[in-house]
Amino acid sequence: MGDDQVNLGLLCFFPYRAMETRVMAAATAAGFDDITLAQARIFQRIGPAGTRVSDLAEQARVAKQTATFLVDQLERAGYVERVPDPTDARARLVKIAARGEEAVALARRVEAEVEAEWAQHLGRRATAQLREALTRLREITDPYQGT
Amino acid sequence: MGDDQVNLGLLCFFPYRAMETRVMAAATAAGFDDITLAQARIFQRIGPAGTRVSDLAEQARVAKQTATFLVDQLERAGYVERVPDPTDARARLVKIAARGEEAVALARRVEAEVEAEWAQHLGRRATAQLREALTRLREITDPYQGT
DNA sequence: TGACAATAGACAGATTATCGAACCAATATG
DNA sequence: CATATTGGTTCGATAATCTGTCTATTGTCA
Predict the structure, then answer these.
(1) I need a surface site. Which of A40, A50, A70, A143 has the fewest CB within 10 A?
(2) What is the pLDDT of residues B41-51, one digit of tens each?
(3) Which chain A residues contact residue B25 at CB under 8 A?
(4) Where are the alpha helices (DSSP H) in chain B?
């Protein structure tokens, strides 16, 4: 006893999971009911100019084959499309398709909604500090902050 | 552009994953190399007095069957044991076994180490504020904070 | 420049994780 | 006490993931 403090990593987990759950539930309710959590975690990483499968894999920390597999499904469901990478004939860029843009728009709305609830609970000042601290923490916990 | 702020849920994800990765890597290096991430996520939830499989399932948000399956493996590997629940003859308590305690001790050490690095980066004041904010956020994002 | 290594992506097969359904035993409820 | 609920497991199916291997393209450097 005495040192029964929950570790910071675990404390970060609860909001993360809560947000993910809310967004997924809203997506399902809105008719995007064919997307799975694993697919969403890949989808989330696609940049505005498109992203390579191997980059998606690296950022999501799964094997290239897994990313290929999940992108296949996202493509079949109409959320993304694969286009040749003009700068490298070996590569292809995964880009968000029309249906994917709709899903992104919904996700952004829900995210803002949930953040508003959190800010309501914490207060504006503490929320701003939280964002600031997490952003700085990202510098040493996320190798891909450039994305 | 302009609204390109990363959402708070995702910002929470990076430290969470970083911590999980560090602990798992240290565990593997220390000879606890037969435990998987899925198993660890269940194991992590076991309370000091033991916890029922259905509670583990609920907290980890997996089906009872999945928890049973993972506890089976943890038991075979010597990390946990199942004992009858004295208060309910239907139930069994999953308890941490000797080898499990060793793994917990290692995990605690690594967690403290990583937190020290984070505190180094953020400063003590900001770290304390971060813990405070996340703890308050847990009130509305984790239904099982009692654990 | 041309041989060779490295990279991007995909396919095949095996393993792990997960869920839905059905089941048994014990407990709670009327 | 009859019935519903709860805790746990087993079975079968599906989803997700990895290792290994392959082709095509690109990068390197002697």
Answers:
(1) A143
(2) 999 999 999 99
(3) none
(4) 8-29, 37-43, 53-60, 64-76, 98-122, 124-141
